[in-house]
Amino acid sequence: MRALRVYGKDGFRIEDIPEPQPGPGEVKLEVHFCGICGSDVHDYVEGPRLLPVGRPHPQTGRIAPITYGHEFSAEVVEVGPGVQGIQTGARVVVRPTMPCYRCRYCIEGRAIQCTQLAAVGGAADGAYARFAVVRADCVLPLPASVSWETGAYAEPLACGVRAVRRSRLEPGAVAAVIGAGPIGLLTMQMALACGAREVHVFETARVRRELALKLGASSVLDPREGDPGRVIGKLTGGQRVDVAFECAGTGPALQLADQVSGRGATIVQVGVQREPVTFDFFSLFFREKTIVTSQGYSNPEFEIAVGLLGAGRIKPHPVMTSAIIPLEEVITGGIEALLGPQRESHCKILVAP
Ligand SMILES: [Zn+2]
Ligand SMILES: [Zn+2]
To answer: Which numbered ligand comes closest to the C-alpha of 104?
Structure first.
């Protein structure tokens, strides 16, 4: 079968590999849709951060090349020995995180901090291929009310679920989202679903501002126009926001989160900051703000994401889906489209292997 294999920096190749077979405790899936993640794009440009290159992953024993793709819906086609409660033909989504369940953090219920955490599409083969074999504990039923396309959003939505939980956002709070990429838009919808009175979105790309409005943003603002702190002050009776979600992963976006947030606010770092950032700690100190980070999701948070999609409380597809492409185009029509001149017109690209 064809698969997108990642060897390391400058090593993204679509090639033929043998169809995988499920071992004990594993399930074989036929992939329906797999979303292209911002992390795939970063890894393509800067080289993979977490791929086990040259040294086996301590938990999976796997070494690059590895099949990428971790945001997907699929159908169970074969069940390995010893697997219970999963039937052939079931519609499912996959939680890519593979905790060890043995370290201190796993035992304490903090699996996202697992010392040997592996991920499907990172340290185990993922879903940029027709078939994927995954550990059975990663497989969750996809509610009948959720389309295959929408199912591919469960994983990024789970990041939004954690971001809002980490923020301790109260019903009636006023929030801001900096950066309206897929994670920012899903975090925005999650904040609204949790009772935020208003969510103001800062985004430089016009198309993404329009998407934010369609999905329920209270206002959309271009941070390059005017003084964002004053603009948000006017919109909030001078108080600015209670919670600011930094979903762009840049220094200026974090500084903007500080500018638009008020006294006692919480700033949640959701975007991946890959470079050191200069930040005004006096502003943080003087207004007694809190910064929290939010990375990935816990197992229960992934289930919450699937449940919200099942209940129709969050509807990312088709609004956020900017293209659906075949596997052969995942590099040229997918990852490179998210880097090229048209990137600002894209949001989530789904691959249909
Ligand atoms: Zn992702
Ligand atoms: Zn662990």
So the answer is: 2
